[in-house]
Each structure stands twice: as structure tokens, then as C-alpha cells.
């Protein structure tokens, strides 16, 4: 027989030409439509295939089909409950906690570093910070302006002096710079007043170019007189002369004071002259001392020459500012090394850590009940922010209030030459404030991004030819639910206690949209290819979910695996994205499998009601004129009724209409009616073929390219060459994420990071040695360990070319000085075995006596016999080991300046011990064993990430070598190790992440598809994509960082989605590889393109972000990923399938490109309800339960085909050979009723007589093979309307197509009636699906 013609509609809304049933999805994509049918064919031996894969696919399809049917029955309830659940989770957004500290966001979170940080926090405090210094940078405002002039340094001094004089009042104390800065310590004199005076007069640790000149003294705060009864400050005081004059005055009146101890301390620290003899920047200044270097000549100093070798502070021995730290962008003279040009000047003010500040003031002036390390940090932040605000005010020339509580303002600030320079500050408090300001969600940006995507999907789903068939509302509701789903997922993360940061709030909403929108197109594709006649109305969502659900489940699980694998990246900000992204993907998968089918269910009802898309209240109302025009197109189907003996039953044969076309001129004006006509099974005009869209034509033409050998060879050569180039180019990939990219470009912090990277490249670091090491007995090993760092070129050397002294060297030098003083007093007889002469012995000699007698034994602490037997430091340079910790106590207390300048930060700190020459007590308390000590270094020339990583590797190698070989437990610390050490292991972590993701994808595919060939091919494809993505990073200058590496991992999830869609369509198709590749591309090309465009639009808003790391390391990286995914999935991956593709799920034996028409399965046994008399069974009733399988109409009416059944005229015969017994009640008929003699044939009906004259088939069918019944077009009006009752006896499903000829009316009745029952049924004269009118 001639199969029924069926028109279809593609995803773009264009009418496709009618196709033979054998080209429908059921025949060429059997496993995609109905895996159960394919599995039954496999068991019957009619096809070959993969039994395990089919069994798993059948099982999954069965479950999700039941789920779809359930959702369709309860769509409204599911939508309401889902919305309530999502809104309830959105409430969790109120409890969002943001992390704003940069060290807790971007520093590596690895086991080794965590152990090191934990050890540091254990001994230094919980709130230790690595960015606690106050930075101040000056650079020219104009190109021709130089900073190496006295005017530039005077402006530097004026701004810095005023900014550093700010103060804050908190916790019942007035806080100024001298209360907060790290400073040298004077030894204690057991006089609280003297100790306080000396502490307040000691300068802060400051590195500044001003220390090369007299103006540097203006930075030293001064609140108290330096010496009682003598006022002054460091601008006009010579410390050595001052103490000498004060000593004479006190001794004149018989007073006593430890002047010798004070003089020794000043001399040892290099405080002899102060600033009194340094050159003045402006020698004409009246405050410039007469002793200044250039006071007599009144000549301005050569600034470049003075700064060439760094600057010494007030304590010249311990306060040296290296030129690398204070002058940037230097160009030196080749002859004498003097600085000729410079781009910027920098001052660094060292502040105490919150823990040290709390400890220093907790027992002194601060008695507030809330005083704690956390509140100490608040004091530091408040002062830093006020410092930065003051600099901004000064540079803008604004006025500041004299008192913040009133409206009185100071006069406008006027600083000479201020407009020629720009000043940039950096504080950790301002950095944290900027991060906090950019951490919260930008609702406006999010809404704009989602609106852009919503507009695109509406345009993609819009159908110009039919407003009813359009799917815009489905797509728009899907975007809205993705937004709601994202908000709910983030709310759930907040309730789970996950910490949010600037990366999660700025990236995740758009990343979730980009990943989620792709599944929407997969669903709408299946929805578009599910016509109303393919399944019962209540089964449509089950069929859609059965087709699209497998793809969505597989891709969603792969996306979740990608977020889990990204947890290998050891950066807290990125791990937060991974965890929260994984939660969002769980919400997204639940949405796609539960809510999206419910949305489609509602839309199906809208389409059945004939309502416009997006305008649901508007119903389609075609005009009568248009309908009447279409009447000439609507053909007439005919039925031939023949009476069969012996019971005079009438046998009905339903004939197909002649091919009558609608005039092409009427198509455009009546598209909605045309769509309904085509779906009702009427013939399609030839001109409908011209309606095929250019998109569909392009898809077909493009997919045919992969069937040509020349194209395959070209693409294969191109793929191999590109892969080889990418593999080689990976080696050129650079590491790096600049600090300036972490803050907005318009901030002072961003500008400072830029200047620091461009000009200074100066950092501090220290080597921490831990406990479990014998410091007293392994001093030589410790010295050798320290000397090894001389081979690290990035460490700044002393002027003599050696390394900076560390605490043990300073400690040893102090003991040598004490030994020399003791030896001199011993030679002069001022000290003997029994004691010392109070008036003659020196203070240091007496201290030496006390040190030499220490034994280090608790039971016998003093032994005078050691005076002549031992030395404090032996000839090998080792401190006497038994008295080591006793000496350490004396050094920390007596030489407090040297101890604090060594920056040892020793823990536990030695207890205070006061040395009094008049005290004959010899025992010195023993310090506790050292558990924590630091060796400080200053670094230079760390220009980029690669140089920093190389430096880290050198330092780590030294530490690891001595730790393993010599048991020196140590580790390095500092900003380079905190921020850049991630790159030392980043590539390895990313490799672990890729391996984890690939292993997860392999496991998922093997469990869900049980297809090792498909799994291997997709894995190889993902590896190729990964190589290409990393190579393109290198080509476009995107450096490898934690963010771009994470995007590469997420990129594999983007790449696997179109590959899975195409590959699943490939293995579900029937035919050879070329045919299956063509079918796969025709099936999934448009969803892939739509998904890529929508994903790009999802993240396009991020291109305008003010955060550099989002633009450079996320947006551009993800854009590369999306392009690679789209291009590869539509070129290289189809090529791989056409060459190495796995076999199809089934391979039919009878045909190469389709399955044979299968035999319908027997109906399920159901409990028969008692039949009520005289109550007809309604055909196609809408209350049936969801069928186990959705079959096309051809399979419900046709059994195995027979080659002998070849009618010469088109007709539709009920098969399998079912006898239809009809009884017709005539009301007004021109022919007499049938009689037994005529067998029911009207005498004047030639066609009927011809039908009656044909002998009945052996099996009792109405016609025999080869009979041809012409249509009864010559008697259109001789047969009046009659009511016919039809009774069928069969065990199979039967469908009889009996359209009714009508001349007018707004709508046509359905063209088919069907039944799936073995009992007798009758049809009355009713319109719709419940009955049929016959002519």
C-alpha cells in the first residue's frame, strides 16, 4: 500500500515536505524514539545490536517516560510547588557571608602552606597579616617632570608629614602613628618614666628617600621632651652631644643615671649624629641646622647622587633603606653608578600587626574591656583609611574640618609644586574595603544579562508562520526559572555555610546561565519534533522527556563532575566557585527534569486551545473567507460499503483522496490553517517545499560535506596539523595573575599595584626556623644555612656584598663586644675572679662577668671558674652552648635595639631581665627553647610571575635540602610565597583536575551507555579540546592562572555537551557512518549553534566588568572555550565519528538504513469492566492512562508488509485485514436499501457494483490483492447523510481514517478514529474524534 503522507515542522518553524513513514525517526532513530521497541526487535533476532546498551537505555527511558507522564498530569501542581521551593531557598540569600581578605581568597590553600600558616599563627597570633604596611608613592603628573629634584622631595615630605599626623580616638585612647608603627626598642632602665620617654623618641621603621636628607627628621613623631628639662626634637638635636650635656648637668648636682648604658645603646645603634649633618633640600629654610652639609654653600643637593646607594635612617646601623625600595624606574650612569633618571619615589611605613599591637598596649594605657586583637585590627584599619583620605584631600586641595564634630574648617592647603606630581597610597584596609564594595551581587548587571539571553531565545523560538506553534513562552519561562534556580541555589549555599566572595558573586550567576541555557534548546528541539499525532495527548511530555532526558541527565552529571574536579585548584576563591557551582548544577538538573516538562505541559494545552504564544488570552480566529478559500484545497476522502454474505454485513473500504493541491497564492495568507490541515493528514502542495528555511537548507548541505572523501582528507590533515601545533605551543604558555587585576581599575590600589609591578618589584620575605632544633649546639649549621641564600640573585645584598645579618649573627657580635669589654677590665684589674670594682669596671665588663659564669644548669647555675676557661664566643665563632639561652635573655633585655632590629620575632620571647652593675646577683634566668625565629631578607627584580616562581623554587630547594639532610625545620614566608606559590604546582593541580574529570566522564558514560567505543572517542575528543584551549590561551596572551585554568576545566563540560548530543544521535541512527554523521548533524546542529550563541550572550555583560581578572582571565578564556567547543563539535568531532565512530545501537538485517515495519505487540491484559448495554465506547478518549510505549500511527494499524500488496491506486485500507461490519440507517438516500439479493449493492452505483462483483478474499477481507476501486467522484450528491454504526472484531489496535466532507464551518473535525480494544465498538454521528460521518 501507499503509506500515509505526513507533514512535519522543523525547529525553525518552517514546514518540511511530507516524508515517507520509513524516513521518520521511529524507523531511522529507533532507539532514540523507543528503545523498548529496539530491544524487542533485538530479542526477536530482526536486528543486531548492543544488548547491554539497549537494556540500560530501555530501562532509563521507561523511568523518565513514567516521570514525564506524571508531570503532565500534575503540571500545575508541580510548577506551584517548585516555585514555592525555589522562593523559600532564595530567603537564604539574607544570610550570605562574604570574605574580603585577599590572603584568604587568593593565597594557595594547600596542605604544606596551611601547616606553615598554622605554625606561624600559633606563635605570632591569629590575626597576623602580610599586607600591613603603609605605602606612599609619588610619580610625575606630566611627562617632562622629574622626581629627582629638591622640589619633588619637598612635596613628598609635606604630603607625607601631614598625612602621617592623623589620629583616631577609639577604645578610650588617642591613637597616633607612634602608637601603631613598628619601631626600635630601647633597653629598660627600671624607670617607667625614662622607658616611656625613650620609647616615644625612637623612630618608626620607615623606608623613605627623605632619610638621605635633613627633611627626613620631620617624619619622626615627637610628643615628649627627649630628656627631662631639655626640649627639642630630632630636627635640631645631636643625640650624642645632647646626652653628654645632660650627663654633665646631672652629675653636677650629684644625680645618678645609667648614662653609660644609654650611650652604649646609642652608639651601637648608630644614633650618634641623627640628622643634624645631613644635607637640606632647601638650605635657605631657617629650620635647616647650621651643621647641615650644604648650609654654608646654600647649594641644593644632587638628589640622584644621594639616593644612588640607599638612605640610612636615624639608627644608621639598623635603619637602612635600599635604593630598590625607595626609587623606581631607575636609569643609572655607566661610569659611577649614580641615578640619572627615576620614574617614582616610594615611602614604606611599617605598622605593628594586630596581635603585636594588642600585646603591646594591653597592660599599659588601654584598659578598655573590649580590647582584643580583633579590635586592635579595627584601630589599624581606621588609622589607615584616615591616612589615605588625608592624602586624597591634600592632593585635591580640599579643606578639612578642624574638629569633626563642628563645621569649622582649616584654610585650604597650599603645598608648593603639588600639582606637578600625583600621589598614590596603598593600605590593606583600603584594599579590603574595595574588595568588600565589589563583592556583593550586582542585581542590575544580572538582570541585564538575563534579559539579553531571554530576548535571544525568544527570537530563536519564534515562528513567523504560526504564532500558535511558536515556543517563545517556553524559552522565556525557562530563562526566568534559570534565574530563580540560580538564586535558590546560591541561597542554599548560604544556608549550608559556604562563604561567598567577589568571584562567586560576579561570575556564578552568568556561568550558571551559560551552562543551563544549552539544555533548554535540547528540550525545545524534542518538543518541536513531537507532533500531536505521534502520541496520545496525555503521553506527549513522556515522549519528549524520553528523547531529551537522556541527554540532559548525561550532560548535567558531566557538569557536576567538572565542578567537583575543579576542587583540585588550591585557591579558596576558586574552590568556593566549585562548591557553589556544583550545588547550582544539582538545582539545574532537577529543574530540567521536573520543571521544564511541566512548562512544556502547560504550553501543550495552550497549543491545543489554539492560543497565541506570549499572548495566551488571544485565541486563533481565522476568517470565513480564508476558510472558504482553503475549502478548494481540502480534498475529499471516500468510503465504499459492500454487503457481505451470509449475514448481509456491510464491508467498508476507506479510499485515499486524489492529490489535490492548494493554490500557492493562498499559502502565505492562511498559514495557521495550513498547519492544521497538514497535521490532519491532507496532501501538501508542491509549493510548500519552497518554504524550507535557509537554516534548514544550510544544515542539510553542511551535513552532506562529511560524506565526501576530499573534505574528510582536508579536515583530517588540518586537525592533525593544528593538534601538533597546539601541543608545541603549550610550552609557550605563561603563568600569571597580576595583583592589579583583583581590584577595579579606577581605584588607587589598582594604580599602586601597577606602579609597584612596573617600577619597584620590592618585597620582604623571611625564613622561619621552627622548634625541634638545637640552636645552641648547631650554630655553625645555622650560619651555613643562612649563607646558602647568597646564591639567590633576587636577595638584596649589603654594601659590602654580603647578606643582611640575621639574629644569630647580631647576637654573636653583641657577645663579642661584651667579651672585649670584659677582657679589657680583666687586664686592667678592674675585674677579678671574685668580683668587680664598682667605680672602675665598665658596665659592659660587669655584664661580661655575669655572662661568663653561667652554666646553663638549673641545679648549679653559676660557676666562677669558667671566667678563665671559656669565651662567650669561641675561636670557631660559636656561642658557648651551655650558656646560650642565658645569654639570649641578657641580649634581648640589654641590647633591645639590636634585638628588635634583627626582626627575629623570636617565640617564646625571652623574659625581661634588668642588668644593674651594683647588683652582685650573678644568676641570669634562662630563656625558653626557641620555637620560632625569622631570618629577614629584602627582595628585588621580581618583575613577572615566571621570575617569582623561579625564585620560589630556589628558596624552596634550599629549605627542603637542609630540612631533609640536616634536620633544620624551616620554611619561607612572605607575599611571593603566599600569592605566587600557587603557580609552582598549578599545572600539576590542573592536570589532576583534568584527569579526575575525564575519569568521572568515563564512569558516567560507561554506566549510562555501556558503550566503551563511544566513551573512548569522547574522551579522546575532550583531550584534543583541552590541548587546543590551552594553546589558544598562549596565542591570545591569556596567562595561566587559577581562574583561566578553572575555565579550561569548565570548558571540558561545555565541550562534552554538544559532543554527547551529536554522538548519541550518531549511535541512535541507522545506517553506515556517513549516513549516521549526516543524520546526527541534521538533528543537533541547530541546538549546538543556538546554545553557543546564547552562552556567549550570557557572559557578554562580564566584558564590561571593572575587575581585570573577570575580563582577562574569565570572559576571554570562556569565550575561547565556547568557540572551540562549537567549532570542534561541528567539524572535528563529526570527522572523528565518520572515521572512528562506534557502531550504531542496532543494525537491521532486512534494510541498511531503517528497520523493517515491526509487528505490533499484543495488548496488555487488563481487567475487563462489565459492559453496560447500549452505551457506546468513546473513541480516542482523553482519560486513558499513559501507555507504556508511544507509537506512530503507522505502527498501530499496519502489520508486517507483504510484497504482494501493491495497489495501483492510492487508498487507505484497514490492516491487518479487519472485517468492519456496519449497519447503516438511511434517512434520505436516492438508492434503495440493500437487499439480500443484491448483496447490498445499489443498482445505480457502478463503483459499488464493481466492488461487489469482486470475490471476497479467503480470509474474509473486503478486497483482494490487485483490486482497484476508483474514487466515487461522479456521484458526489447522490448519497445523503446517514448515521453508520461500525462494529469491529480484532485483537489489535485499529485506526480508520474517515474524514467528513463539509462545505462550510470554522473548523474541520479530526480525520481519524482509533480504538485499542478487542470488544465491539460503535461510532455515532458526532464531530471530533469520537465519531465519523461517512458519505
From TrEMBL:
Any one annotated GO CC term: plasma membrane
Localization (cell): Membrane
UniProt biased composition (Basic residues): 1163-1175
PROSITE patterns, per database record: SSD
Domain of life: Eukaryota
Key word Oxidoreductase present: no
Lyase is among the record's keywords: no
Membrane topology (UniProt): Multi-pass membrane protein
Primary location recorded for the protein, binned into one broad class: membrane
GO molecular function: hedgehog family protein binding; hedgehog receptor activity; smoothened binding
Location of the region described as Disordered in the Swiss-Prot/TrEMBL record: 1153-1177, 1226-1269, 1304-1335
Spans traversing the lipid bilayer: 446-462, 474-500, 548-571, 583-602, 705-725, 989-1014, 1021-1043, 1049-1071, 1092-1110, 1116-1140
Biased composition (Low complexity): 1310-1335
Segments forming domain SSD: 442-602
GO biological process, one term: negative regulation of smoothened signaling pathway
Keyword field: Glycoprotein, Membrane, Transmembrane, Transmembrane helix
Family in the record: Belongs to the patched family.
Name of the protein described by the UniProt record: SSD domain-containing protein
Taxonomic lineage from the root: Eukaryota, Metazoa, Ecdysozoa, Arthropoda, Hexapoda
